[in-house]
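Exercise: predict the fold of this chain.
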Amino acid sequence: MLWFLGLLYLVLLAGGLAEQRLRGPRPAKETDHRLGGSIAAVTAHVLAGLVLAVGYRLLAYDAFLPSAAEVPPPPGLTVTHVDPGYCGSNFCSRILVFGSTTGLPPAEIEARLRAALTADGWTPGRDGALVRPHGWLLDDRLSETHVHGGTVELSGSELTNARR
């Protein structure tokens, strides 16, 4: 869509230059001001921006595979395994397995993971999950974690499921 707007601008520019060349310079009038052209150009850019924003919202519905870096290990824990991830029909997910460097039980690992995620800005969501916005402004997809013992399922939702 962006290429179409660029092509439209080039056609309008070429038409304006061709008209000026064929007709010659316009006679000056007392009412001629550059303000009208400036207002038209600003209006065209604002409308093009709105069309791009609406187009993005309509077309950007794909789920995303969150990076394992979104869940850094808290002190005393290490990541022992990272699943490469998989995608379903409206979500993508990966599994991270955390282990303790000091031999903590799974319940204590889960408590430390939840505390670290909450301190990092993750908020409680549905079904005991912790959620956090993935993007900014127009991108309202969510990253979602489910913590069970030392295992974290990290998933990314598409736009249509982001606020359900």
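Check your answer against the key: Confidence is low (pLDDT under 50) at residues 160-164.
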